[in-house]
Amino acid sequence: MEMRAAWMVQAADSLLKLVFELKQTSIFSGFGSLNEHVDRRIIEFEQQAEKTNQMLERIGEQALAGVKELETHYCSSDLRTSHSKES
Questions:
Q1: pLDDT tens, 15-49?
Q2: Structural domain boundaries enclosing 75
Q3: Dihedral (C-alpha) 10, 16, 20, 26: value to the nearest 10 degrees?
Q4: FRET label pair with 42: which of 11, 27, 72, 79, CA 20 to 30 Å apart?
Q5: Structure pTM?
Q6: GO molecular function: any one (predicted)?
């Protein structure tokens, strides 16, 4: 009876060690896939940031061109010349 109890304790101990090793393997392999996912997302966000920067540059250039055009129209308009004569 004692022998059987000792075997059961030994089997339970072996089973616990196996479960522990499986958990560790699962955790470490989970970190690897998590790191890969994070790396992919970083690349995606960097690409999106680059596109956003290019879009902002275009908008800035268009705004500058629009302001210059408006300034040219204002400088050559009758409103400005008549306003200058009043001053």
A1: 999 899 888 887 777 777 878 888 999 999 999 99
A2: 2-86
A3: 120
A4: 27
A5: 0.54
A6: transcription coregulator activity
